[in-house]
Queue: 2 jobs
Job 1
Amino acid sequence: MPDIGFLAPYDFSPLTILSFALVLAGYGYALLHMSPEQRPGSVRIVTFVVGVVLCYGVMQTRFDYYSQYMFFVHRGQHLILHHLGPFLIALSNPLPIFRFWHERMGPTLRSWLRPLGWVYRVLQQPVIAAVLFVGLIYFWLWPPIHFDAMLSRQLYWTMNWSMLLDGLLFWWLMFDSRSPVLTNALGYGKRILILAAVAIPQMILGAWIVFSRGMVYDVYEVCGRAWPMAPETDQLLGGLLTWIPPAMMSVVGILLILRRAMHEDGRIVKPSRLAGENS
Amino acid sequence: MTRPLLSLILAVSVLALTGCFGDEEQWHGKDISGLMPELEFELRGTGGQTVRPEDSAGTIRLLYFGFTSCPDVCPTTLTDLRKAVNQLPENYRDDVTTLFVSVDPERDTPERLASYANFFGDHVVGLTAAEPELRDLTKRYRTTFGYDEPDAEGNYNVSHSSAVYVFDRSGNARLLLRPGLTTQQISEDLAHLASESRS
C-alpha cells in the first residue's frame, strides 16, 4: 500500500494551499465556462495541471522535508519551482484563461490590479528578467544567505515563493504565445539570446559547487541531514542538479522557440506598418 | 532604455548585498536573532520528570541534539562546551545550562542519559522524549535527525545537528555555534551574552 503520509505537507502553509487551490479552481472554472473555440486542448490542459501539481508537490508534501535537510533534494526542489513547473505552465499557454478572467473583472478590480501590471511590465523587461532569473539563483545560493534561508522558516518560504513566481514570469516571457510580429511580445531572437545567456552563469555556478573541495553549504551539516549521507556526495549531486538540468532546459527552450520561429516565418505578416499598432 | 536600467539594477543589488553583510558581527558564533523562535519544549528528564525551559529560566541555555552512542561529534562538542564554561569568569559559570537532547530515545535510557550528562558537568541536563515530540522540537529549530540501518550487532548511526543553539536568559534564540569554534571563542560569546542581560 502506498504511504499516504508522504502526501501530507511537512510544513503546512495555508497560504500556499489556498493559492494552488485558487489557481486550479480558476483554471477549471474558466475551462467549463469559456467558448469552445478558445478552450485549450487536452494536451495543454494536462501540461498545465502537471506543472501546477509538480510545484505543489515539492512545496506541500514530504518532499519539502527532504528539501530542507538534503542539499541535493533542495536543488531538485528549485529545479522544479524555478524551471520545470513554470516551464510546463508557460508552455501550456494559459493565455485564454487569463483573457477569460480579465473580461469578467469589474472596473474597480481592474484599477486595483493596475499597479501589479506596472510591476509586471518592469519585471518583463528582457534585461531585468534575465538578471532577475539568474540573480535569484545566485542570491539564494550565496552561502551566508543560504544559511539564513535554511534556518528561518519565513526566509525559507520567501525563497521558495520568489523562485516560483520568478520562474513563472521568466518562462512566460520565453513562451509567450503571441506573435512578436503582431503584438509587443518579445522577439524570438531575443528570447533565444536570453535563454542562452542565463544558461552560462548557471553552468558556472553548478560547476563551481561540483568542483569545490570544501563544504560550501555547511547548513546541512549543522542542521543534520535527513539520513546519514556523505556531505561530499550531497554537495556533488546538488551541484550537478544546478549545472546540467537547467542548462538542458535552456537548450530545450531554445529548440522550442526556434521551431515556432521557423513555423511562423513568412506566414504571419503585419497587415500594414501603420495598422500594426496594437501594442 | 535598458542601459540605465541595468546600471540601476546593478547598483541596487550591490547596495542590497553590502547592506546584508554590512554589520560585522561581534560574535564568533552565528547570530540567529530573529531567525528562530524562542526556547520552548516539554521533554522528559533523566528522573522521568517533565522538563520545560522555565526550569532553567534566567540562565543562558545551550541546546544540543545528539545521542549517547555518538562516536565523536557529541563528546567533542560537550567537552568543548564544558571547557568554554570553565573558562568563563567565575560569577557566570553557574549561569549556563547545557540541554543535551537525545534524539535516540530507543537506546538512551534515563540511566544512561543521566550518567552521560553528569560526565560532562553539573549544569548539563540530559533530556529526551518519544520520537514524534523530538520531531516537533527539531522542526521548530529547523534541524532533523535520521537513523541508519542497524548492523549485525544492532548498532546504528544517527545523523543529527552538529551545532549548538544558544538562548539568552530570556529564552530568545541568539547564536548558533557551528563546529570549528575554539573553546576560547565560545567562552567569549557566552561571557558577552551573560554580561549583557544580567537581570
Job 2
Amino acid sequence: MVIDTNRCVGCWTCAVACKEINDEPLGYWWNRVLTTAPNQSTAAKAPASENIDVPYGVYPNVELAYLPVACQQCNDAPCVKVCPVQATFRREDGVVLVDYERCIGCRYCMAACPYGVRIFNWGDGERAPGGVIGYGKDYRVDGRLVFAPVRPKGVVEKCTLCVERIDEGQVPFCVESCPLGARVFGDLNDPSSDVSRLVRDGGAQQLHPELGTDPNVYYLPVARRVAAES
Amino acid sequence: MSTVAVPSRAPRPGSPTPSAGALQKAAHHGVRWWYAVLVAIMAWGLAAWIDELNVGLAATGMRDVVSWGIYIFTFAFFIGLSAGGLIMASSAEVFGIKALKPLSRLGVLSAAACVSVAALMIIPDLGQPFRILNLFVHPNWSSPLVWDILIITVYFVFSVVDLTVLHRHARADAEEGHGTRAARLRTVVRVLAYVGLPTAVLLHSVTAWIFGVQIARAWWNTSLMAPLFVVSAVLSGTALVTLLALLAERFGKVSLPEETRRWLRGFIVVSLFIDLFFVGADYITMLWGNVPSERSALNLVLPGGSWSWLFWLEWIVGGLVPLALLLVPRLRRQQWSLWAAALLAMVGVYAFRIELVVVGFVNPLTQFPPGNALGTYNPSASSFQLVGAYHPTWVEYGIVAGLAGLFAAIVTVGYRRLDVMGTAVGAGPLLGPPPADAASRREPQLPEPGALGASVAS
C-alpha cells in the first residue's frame, strides 16, 4: 500500500471506515491519522501538542501534515519474531495476521512493535448500540481464525489489511473510503503496478526504515512536487 | 498451599532447658500466626485473580500504551532474586568460599521458591491463561520468551534437584560422618554447583534479552542489558539470602559467623558498585548521543522527570545509602546495618525493574498526536494517550501480594522441613546474639582474602 501524504487532509475517514468494517469496539483504533510535520516519517521532533491538528513551529513559520498509521505489514516483522506461540504470522503474500484462537495474550508483540498499531482486548469491548455493522463473519486463512466480528477478550488484534476483501479482489476498506484518493493498493512484487511505480518514481518512504523492519506500507512525501518543480 | 501443617520439630539435643522450652512454645505459636497471615494474603491474591479472570485484564491499570506492568517487573525481580541466590550458593562451592557454604542450602531454597513464584507471576499477565500450553505445542524459537520459559523450567527442576541433593548430603554427613555415601553425594554437590552457576547466569540473561533485543524500545535496546541483569541479580539475590539468614538468626537456632557476614557484605558492595556503574555508563551513552527516542525516556527518569522517584530510589535509597552502611566503619559495626543495607539494595533493584519496564513504554517510538489508542472506552476522557501512564490497581497489588505470600510460605515450610541451616552453621546459642568471641575468632579463621572479601576487609 502507498499513502500519499500530500493528499491527506486528516479527515479520519479511513480510521472511522476501519472501525466500521472491522467492528472495532469503542476506544479501539486499528488505524489512526497522526498529526505531524511534513516529510517527517520518524519521530525526530517532540510532538507539538497532545491534540490533533495543532501545527508544529511558531507563527508565522508553522507546518502541518498528516500520517495515517495502521499495521505496516512488515516483511521482517518484530511481532512475528517475538510471538511465543506463532499466533502472529506472515502470510506468503506479506499480510501479517493474528490467529485469535491461538493468541495467549502475553502482549510481547505490543512491546516489540515500533509503530504502536496493536490493540489488546483488555475486557469485553464496548460497542455502540445497533449490533454488528461491518464484515460480520468469521474469516479464516489456512484454517486459522484471523477475523471475527467480536474478538475474545485477552487477545491482541490489529489491521488485517482487510484480508477478507483483498482475497476477493477488492481493495482494503480504508483505500476505498479515502475521499481524496490518498491511498493506493496493489502488488509491490509486480513492477508495473501503480504502487510499484509510485514507490520507484515518487520517492516513497517507509516508516522507521532504519529499523530494518521493511514495511509494505510506503508514504509519498509532502514536498516531492515542490522539489520536482524547482 | 492453604493447608500448611505446622511441622513439629524434635528438640535438639543440648537445649532442653526450661527457658528454651518456653521460647520454643512461643515460637511455635508465632509460626501459626505467621502461616495464618500468609494464607490470608494468598487467599486475597487468589480472589483478586478470580476477579481478573472474570473482568479480563481491564481490571488492571495496564492499557495499550503501557501494556506491561507490575506482573512483568515483579516477574523480572523474582527471576533476579532466584538467579542471584543460586549464583551466590554455587559460588561458595565453585570458588571455594568456605564462609558462604553454610548458606548454600538456604540460597538454593530461596532460588527454587523465587523461580516458582516468577513463573506463576506470568500467568495473571496473560490475556488467555488457559491457552498457556500453546507455549509448548506451538513454540516459536525466535522468541526470547520461549527460551525464557524453557530456561525457567530447566532451572526450576535443577534447583529442586540441587536442594534435594544438598539436603541428602547434609543428612548423610551428619549420620555417618565422612562416609562413602556422603563422599559420593559430595561429588554430586560439586558437579551441580558447576552446572548451576552458568544456568543461573543464563536464566537472567535470557530474561534480559526479552527486553534487550527489542528495536522498538530505545530504552531497552542495549547490549548492556544482560550483564546489568546478571549483576543486579547477584545484588538482589545475595541481599535476599542475607535477609533470610538474618531472619533465621533472629527466629531460629543459628548464628552467622562474622566471616559469613563479611562475605555477604562483600558480595552486596561489589555487585552494587558494578550495578550502578553499568546503569551510569548507560546513562552517559544516552546523554552523549542525545538520540530523541533515548533522551525522551531518560528524561523521565533523571531528576525533574515524572518518573524520577525511581532514580532516587535506585541511586540514593538503594545505592549510596547501602554502600555507606556497609563501607563506613562506624556504620558497618552496627548490628542493624547489614539487614538495612540488604533491604535497601533490594528496594533499589526493584526500582530498577520498574524503571526498565514502565519507562520503556511511556514514550512510544512512533509518538505523534493523538497518540496510541487506549483499547478501552471512557466517556469522559480521550480514547488516545500520547504519553503513557500506569497506576496498578488493587487487583494487581492483590495478586502480587498473594504470590509474595506464596514465596514466604515456601521458604518458611522449606526452612522448617529441610532444616536448611540448623546443622550446617553449627549450634549457636538459642535465639541469642552471636557468640561474644566471634570478633576475636575472626582473624585466625580468615582464609586468604579473595577479591570480594578484600574490598570490605576492615
